[in-house]
Amino acid sequence: HAYEQDNWYLAWEKSISNLHGVAYYEDNSTGIGQIYQLNGSVQDEKISVYDLNGSLDRHITIASNRYHARDLCLDTEGNIYISEIWAVTCLANDGTFKWRKGKNASVSSYGSSDSGNGEFYWAQGITQGPGGNLYVADKENHRIQLLDKNGTFIKKFGENGTAPGQLNNPYDLIFLPDGRLIVGDNYYLNYFDSNGTFITRINSSNAKQYVSLAPDGTIWSYQRLRDSEGSSIVHQSTVRNSSRTAFTPEGDLIESGNDKLRLWKRAFRTKGVSVPNVIPQPAIRSV
Question: Terminus-to-terminus CA distance in the chain, angstroms?
Fold first, then answer.
């Protein structure tokens, strides 16, 4: 491993107002990878699709009515799942509306808040589990909700509190390759199994809130690349701690926050002292 010599440099950035969730998706038929980024304010959110060189490919409208869209993920077929304030919405990759779930939610209504099964109060992070089901961070209800790919409620877990196994405003969540679920809340990265059974939690070096998974099984949370247990490997202060992030298959970091969409390329030195934001020569991209 060359972790201690990781070097991240800014490849490009785009100025975009009101940035939210971001995801990477590679089309199975073409092999082309693109960045899907949520942006816009309150009821004007849309998904902007960018090539990896930063060129805008297209915009996708989120149904005919939307409200505070915060995060998104894509399945292997390219379907897009979006967490909104009071609902979860599914679109085909061309933007065709498929379904929206939540209290009083429909294609023309973003619904209303509540705490029942399949109802949301400030839905935040969303990710797909190993079995294809959707896991949603229901922030103000302090819980995680599990839906199938059609939006049908399966189960929920978590409750408000600061004791181990409890959650305080969960913001984001991802699955590790070994099937463990990491949930970032106000204070910790919380580890659960896929059924919602609590395993452990960590807050080393501000491990909390937003979290994303790298191809090698490392994770990103609060300005740091970390191992799968949350321990810090590299601190990159130039990436904002409030940004949502995603990774490309090459391990490059996509940052969405502070009105900037950025691609940080990751390289490894064979010798010498790592200097932040300086392109190393030579840059080893694969072995």
Answer: 12
Neighbours of 187 (CB within 10 A): 16
Nearest to 210 by CA among 127, 130, 102, 148: 127
Contact 100, 91 (CB under 8 A): no
User: What contacts 24, CB < 8 A, 6 or more positions away?
Assistant: 33, 34, 35, 36, 246, 247, 248, 249, 254
- Exposed / middle / buried, residue 81 (Cβ in 10 Å: 0-12, 13-18, 19+): buried
Per residue in 141-194, pLDDT (tens digit) is: 999 999 999 999 999 999 999 999 999 999 999 999 999 999 999 999 999 999
CB 79 within 8 A of CB 68: no
């297209």: which residue's tokens?
58
Question: How far is residue 147's CA from residue 101's CA, in Å, rounded to a whole number?
Answer: 10
Compute the distance between CA of residue 251 and CA of residue 5 in angstroms, rounded to an integer.
15
